[in-house]
Design brief:
The structure holds 2 protein chains of 2 kinds. Chain A is elongated. By secondary structure, chain A is mainly alpha-helical. In chain A, 30% of the residues are buried. The mean pLDDT of chain A is 93. The longest helix of chain A has 41 residues. By secondary structure, chain B is mainly α. Chain B has 13 helices and no strands. In chain B, helix 1 crosses helix 2, helix 6 crosses helix 8 and helix 6 packs across helix 13. The longest helix of chain B has 21 residues. The chains are: A mainly alpha, B mainly alpha. At the A-B interface, helix 1, helix 2, helix 3 and helix 4 of A face helix 1, helix 2, helix 3, helix 4 and helix 5 of B. The complex binds ligand C2E (2 copies). The site of one ligand C2E has 7 residues of chain A, from helix 1 and helix 4.
Chain lengths: 149, 243
């Protein structure tokens, strides 16, 4: 039972980092799309609008899941890897990039996000399978919360 | 830090160059996406999260304005609690808990603590409903309505009756951590005192991180029943901890 929990915790810690960097990537993809649109359409979008596209739409409420911490492992290797990717693609010099450069930046970020989302999906499968096993043990009386408390 | 961001911090901190400030805010804006997503997930349907985005962005700007790169912290570590704090402050401002829900919650809490003192034990649903002059079914409806948001760890949820983040300290001192730990250990003791069902739900939800549905299949009850038991547990803990 302890092993089960330990394994699940390990996976969830990994998933925390993946989900965090995934959200960062999604935000930056949406930022690049906003900037690219501004460039091509000639529309004058304010910085506030650009920022809002990085933040994304109003998030949905009413989750069935327990509250998740927002404590982030900001020095996690994944985050460093992502920052370096952004740097290589010229994310912070976006305004200087020409359209092909913006496209390269966009595609690079999308590829990275896709990898993270797929890892996240895989982690959920494994975490949820372990949880199902945990549920079984509790239901069959092989586990009790006393050991938790 | 990448060279570009390092440059931006220098220009902002040393020269108050507003263009660099913009670069930083744009660069880190996805942090608000992350925090707002997780906070919103814990809110009941119907809360307008559009506003929360705005307050989150102000929290980010505030963090950019206050951050001191020389202290050696990563900006993300510094900013995320501030963004969350701003969002929770924004939540309080829009008074997102309907008044009737607040009232009902208080009434139940009062009944629970009165009965607890009289009976010297945790009261049953029947006893609580009796004290409130309603049927047990009605009590369960009230508990469903009162199933307020879980926007953080249990200790924050309970000790204030309102979702609240500890004020972000510019240097995460040991005192704050200690205070946190004390609250937690008191909480643990009280959780152990809860009646069997309430204790199980709390442990499975916050410690095992199970969803309400998963807890339902452990206890052999519906998800909404679990939600009611959870509300009751939170109210019981609140009445004990504020006694
Ligand atoms: N309630 C809930 N549902 C979840 C969660 N994670 C995934 N899903 C659901 O699963 C679908 C596929 O997610 P994905 O494989 O990560 O694939 C995602 C992801 O790779 C990407 N994506 C998601 N959000 C964003 C975003 O804000 N910006 C950008 N640029 N891409 C995003 O687009 C794909 C499609 O997204 P969706 O149309 O939203 O479709 C999502 C969504 O319906 C979650 O944490 N909570
Ligand atoms: N074990 C397990 N854990 C899961 C699963 N789905 C999500 N989670 C975890 O639970 C957190 C909250 O998910 P949510 O309530 O759906 O709340 C989500 C959801 O409302 C939204 N979101 C994230 N990704 C997507 C997406 O691709 N599409 C849509 N529509 N919403 C998304 O942002 C919120 C926070 O997302 P995260 O920071 O990634 O945090 C997520 C993630 O860490 C799952 O199937 N199994």
């Amino acid at each position: 039972l302890d092993q089960l929990r330990a394994e699940r915790d390990r996976l969830r810690h990994e998933e925390d980092a993946v989900s965090f960097v995934r959200r960062l990537a999604q935000g930056r993809i949406d930022l690049v799309e906003a900037v690219r649109h501004r460039k091509s359409s000639g529309e004058s979008t304010s910085v506030a609008d650009i920022i809002r596209s990085g933040v994304g739409p109003a998030p949905s409420t009413g989750s069935a899941r327990p509250p998740r911490d927002t404590d982030v492992a900001a020095d996690h290797p994944l985050v460093t890897e992502f920052d370096q990717l952004c740097d290589r693609l010229g994310f912070d010099e976006m305004s200087e990039l020409d359209v092909p450069g913006l496209d390269r930046l966009h595609d690079g970020l999308v590829a990275f996000e896709a990898v993270q989302s797929s890892r996240r999906r895989d982690l959920f499968e494994r975490i949820d399978a372990l949880t199902a096993e945990l549920v079984r043990r509790y239901r069959d009386g092989d586990a009790s919360v006393d050991s938790l408390l | 830090d990448t060279p570009a961001i390092h440059r931006a911090w220098q220009r902002w901190v040393d020269d108050k160059d507003s263009a660099s400030r913009e670069v930083l805010i744009v660069h880190y804006s996805p942090l608000v996406k992350f925090v707002a997503g997780r906070v919103a997930a814990g809110l009941p349907a119907g809360v307008d999260t559009g506003e929360l985005i705005g307050t989150g962005i102000f929290g980010l700007m505030d963090a950019v304005d206050r951050f001191d790169p020389s202290r050696g912290f990563k900006f993300e570590t510094f900013a995320v609690p501030r963004i969350k704090g701003a969002i929770l402050d924004g939540l309080r401002a829009i008074d997102w808990v309907p008044r009737t829900v607040r009232q009902r919650s208080r009434q139940i809490e009062q009944a629970v603590s009165e009965l607890g003192n009289e009976l010297k034990r945790a009261p049953s649903d029947e006893e609580i409903a009796g004290r409130l002059g309603i049927s047990e079914d009605e009590l369960h409806d009230w508990l469903s309505a009162v199933a307020v948001a879980n926007v953080g760890p249990l200790d924050h949820l309970v000790t204030d009756g309102e979702p609240r983040q500890l004020p972000p300290s510019t240097d995460a001192g040991p005192d704050r951590v200690l205070e946190d730990r004390e609250v937690r250990s008191v909480m643990r003791a009280e959780i152990r005192q809860l009646p069997d069902r309430e204790r199980t739900v709390v442990a499975l939800y916050y410690d095992e991180g199970m969803t309400l549905a998963e807890i339902g299949s452990v206890l052999g009850v519906t998800e909404s029943r679990v939600s009611q038991i959870h509300s009751k547990a939170v109210i019981m803990l609140r009445s004990r901890l504020t006694a």
